[in-house]
Amino acid sequence: MRTSLLPIAKEGWNYIAYAIGFSIFFSLLDLELLSFFSFLVLMVSLYIFRNPERELVRFENQSVVSPVDGRISSIEELEDSEYAYKVIIESKYSDVAILRTPLTGSLISTKNINGTRLSLSDTLASKINENATLIFQNEEGNKIKISHYLDRSFCNLSINVSESQKLFQSARYGLMLSGETIIYLPQNFRLNVSVGNELTASESLIGYFS
User: Fold this and answer.
1) Is 138 helix (H, G, I), strand (E, B) or coil?
2) Which of 8, 117, 157, 187 fits a 20 to 30 Å CA distance from 28?
């Protein structure tokens, strides 16, 4: 996995370059309003594609941290043989868009599906919106499943890891501008969060495997 340490995520470089180019072009033509609008687009792009360093918090080996910035909108108990809990996290444009690995271990499965970018409040969104599902496994064999769904985003959902890849907790693995993240957790998991909690990727503890 190639991890960018630059302050701006690589997915935003084209948007920023175009904004700079148009701002200069309109300035040369003395089109002040359009030049100012291009400058605003540049500032917004720099903000939403920011790629900050995060403090590496030392949790226990069996810990799972949040893969995204956002707010927990729902926690459900499931009647499932593999997963017992479903935690839903909503992320907005104001949240840092970088996705981070929730545990130290490996990625054993990934599935990316191209699709639409409807509002997630639409009943069809969960079926036809662009999404990605990843299954992570820690060194003790415990698994979690994470699904990311785009919500009216102008930028693609970016996943930059491959199956069987060794990963360390908090490492960057992708980018999602505005969307919903669903974390599926097994029976032997102790939750450390509740509905309404604001989460910071790699720094907020979701819970522990027991």
Assistant:
1) strand
2) 8
Strand order in 166-167's β-sheet?
166-167, 105-113, 131-138, 143-150, 179-185, 85-91, 70-77, 198-199
CA 33 to chain centre: 34
Q: Give per-residue burial for 194-205: e unless 16+ CB within 10 Å, then b.
A: eeebebbbbbbb
203: DSSP letter: T
Phi, psi dihedrals of residue 162, rounded to the nearest 5° = -125, 160
For the residues of 77-121, what is the DSSP string, one character each? E---SS--EEEEEEE-TTS--EEE-SSSEEEEEEEEE--B---TT
Coil, strand or helix: which one is 24?
helix
d(CA 16, CA 24): 12
Task: Specify the 3-state DSSP secondary structure of 35.
Answer: helix
pTM: 0.91
Per residue of the chain (210 residues), give pLDDT as tens: 444 567 999 999 999 999 999 999 999 999 999 999 999 999 999 999 999 988 777 788 899 999 999 999 999 999 888 999 999 999 999 999 999 999 999 999 999 999 999 999 998 998 999 999 999 999 999 999 999 999 999 999 999 999 988 999 999 999 999 999 999 999 999 999 999 999 999 999 999 998
Residue 101's nearest CA partner among 187, 60, 11, 161 is 161
